[in-house]
Amino acid sequence: MTPRQRLGATPRPPVAVPAYEKVMIYCDSPTLEEWLAPPQPPLPQPTWTKLIVDGVMLSNSIEYGSWRRNPVCPIVCEACWSADCAMTGLARLVTLRDWILWLPGQAEDLDESWRDQLDRSHFLAQAVIMPQATWDGLHARFPNLPPADHYPPASRRGVAQLWLSEMPEAVRVRGLAELDDHLRRTALASDPLDLDPAREVIRSMIGWLNEAPGQSATGRIVRVQDAGGPANSFYFDGPPFPEWPAFIVGRDNSFVFDRGWVLLIGEADGPPDQQPLPAGTESRTVTPSAKAVRRAARPAPRRGPGR
Q: 234 with 164: CB under 8 angstroms?
């Protein structure tokens, strides 16, 4: 049976949501839901366990999913009980200190025979950050799940992929090569840094990511409020007036992710040391209402060169 024939026989599971919607899930308490596998006469029906996080089904059968290759195939075909047949919900699992990151798979991760058969709907649509302790608990219950150290460390390329995927859909770019020019053309304002110094920070981060894209990234993931400084946001024109929190002011190579998480590159364990903010920077939280008031009160947003 060809890959295309197998794909045509595979029902679309609930995990297949449109790409580039809400893009990241924090998973520390997944829901495990047992159910009987669809019948395959004359075989007995095994019990399968769904892995559900934040209402999204990451796997319809932990027991029968393909977990020892990367990208993993967590969705099993209900017609033949094979993950290799479904090829849906494909995710690339990587480790970062005490975390497991689920990143959307990419065509280049696959065997050449599959690359022309799949589109974005077959890949994980929402990235997942999972404490390693949560994975360890799953591994203890389901021996077919490999231990966390089976998966490679996160690379700078993987960090870039996750970071860019957190941009609002209306202003998202597909690669680092587009980011600086995109901000120059479309970002109207930045806070708390002015637009020019904020774009300079972004250029420095791009340089670090591109310096060694395949090199492992070291650091720790913390809540934004525990990062030692305010998150700097870029604001864009046009409804719904997107806002992108991108980095922590005063922190080198700090990548803000969805739902208030940030990766602090090179940080050791323990609370981060306080660093002085740039001159003229005020640490504050910007709410939509305050932002609207501020915009209405000034004749034009701060702009960088080339506008």
A: no
Three-class SS of residue 221? strand
Cα 99 to Cα 282: distance, rounded to the nearest angstrom: 32
User: Each residue of 74-106: pLDDT tens digit?
Assistant: 999 999 999 988 888 999 999 998 999 999 877
Q: Confirm if 7 and 117 have CB atoms less than 8 A apart.
A: yes
Residues paired with residue 231 on neighbouring β-strands, in sequence order: 248
The band of 152, judged by pLDDT with boundaries at 50, 70 and 90, is: very high
Burial class (CB in 10 A: 0-12, 13-18, 19+), 175: exposed
Give the three-state DSSP class for 297.
helix
Name the residue among 97, 110, 112 with its Cα closest to residue 159: 97
Helix (H) or strand (E) holding 36: strand 31-36
Return the percentage of the chain with pLDDT > 90, whole number: 61
E strands present in 45-151: 47-53, 56-59, 91-96, 99-104, 127-131
CA 4: distance to chain centroid?
28
- Which DSSP string corresponds to 142-201? -TTSPPGGGSPBPBHHHHHHHHHHTS-GGG--SSHHHHHHHHHHHEEEEESS-HHHHHHH
d(CA 35, CA 62): 11
So where are the chain's domains? 3-152, 158-297
pLDDT in tens, 128-140: 999 999 999 999 9
Numbers of helices and strands, H then E, in the chain = 8, 13
Looking at the predicted structure, is the pLDDT value of residue 18 above 60?
no
